[in-house]
Amino acid sequence: MVIDDGANDDQRHGLERILHGKDTEPGATHFFIYNSMASEVMDTLYAPIDLGIDVEARTMHLNVPGIVESAGSPITNPHSGLPVSARINLPNGFEYTVAEMGSGSSKLMAGIQLELTDSYGQFNILHMNQDGVIR
Fold first, then answer.
1. Would the pTM of this model clear 0.90, i.e. be above it?
2. What is the SS3 assignment for 83?
3. Domain range summary for the chain, segments of one domain joined by +
4. Cα 123 from Cα 112, distance rounded (Å)
């Protein structure tokens, strides 16, 4: 996990607990689920984070220098070249309620070395607390 290096000690501690699925009902959040499936959890990294997301337009960019570069874009119609809107609805999902589908590319350079090009992308707005998604 990467936390912005501008976070103070209390914010870092709180974010680490949230991102490791602590202080939540078991199985209530995706953070709890992911952490429970991990056989190894890497150390938290602190670095400047440049992030921009537009859920409706299905675009995003993420840059954490030396750690990860990522970009998201809409799925396009191969004939017209126009953006296509496709959604997944999970009325009772622990991950989200509605997500717009898109395309994503990422290059991870720290911890796990990985590069994905024009892969799966998902855009959603998520409000949650220790009990899971707030609807």
1. no
2. strand
3. 2-133
4. 23
